[in-house]
Structures are given as structure tokens and as C-alpha cells.
Design brief:
By secondary structure, this protein is an all-alpha fold. The chain has three helices and no strands. It has a single domain, classed as Ribosomal protein S20 (Methane Monooxygenase Hydroxylase, Chain G, domain 1), CATH 1.20.58. The N and C termini lie far apart (58 Å).
């Protein structure tokens, strides 16, 4: 347990931030998973629809500082490559 008041405050803030980051990372992972599952099943229309939703969630996570912009770009590229493979 922290001995100083400022250290106690930092513990509370760190826990709050941890939960916030966990919420957004899990939301991003779920969105990406939905796109990849739709791509695996071969449903191009569903994959494209969920891709737009996933892009939105990922971009919001970047703005909030939860995810690095290069990581977001890499995830979006992965999804778009899978969708293009279905359409081809």
C-alpha cells in the first residue's frame, strides 16, 4: 500500500486507466475478429460492413491514445487484404 497521498492517487488513476484501456483494446479485438470471421466464411458484403465498423472503432482507439497509429494501420491493412482476397 502506498504511504503518501499522491501515491494513493496515482494507484487510483492507474487502475482507472487500465480499465479504460482494457475496454478499448477488447472492443478493437472483437471488431477485427468479426471482420476476419466474415471474410473466412466468404461473405463479402458482411465483411465490408463490419470492416467499416471496425475501422471506426480502431480510429477512435488511436485518438484516445489506447492504440498506436501504426498498429491501427497494420490491423486495417490486414482486414482490407482479406476482404480483397474474397472479392478477387
Amino acid at each position: 500500500m502506498p504511504n503518501k497521498k499522491s501515491a494513493e492517487r496515482r494507484v487510483r488513476i492507474a487502475e482507472r486507466n487500465r480499465l479504460y484501456n482494457k475496454y478499448w483494446t477488447s472492443r478493437c479485438k472483437t471488431a477485427v475478429k468479426r471482420v476476419l470471421e466474415a471474410a473466412e466464411s466468404g461473405n463479402a458484403e458482411e465483411a465490408a460492413k463490419s470492416f467499416n465498423a471496425a475501422q471506426s472503432v480502431i480510429d477512435k482507439a488511436v485518438v484516445k491514445g489506447v492504440m498506436h497509429r501504426n498498429t491501427a494501420a497494420r490491423r486495417k491493412e490486414l482486414m482490407s487484404r482479406r476482404i480483397k482476397a474474397i472479392k478477387a
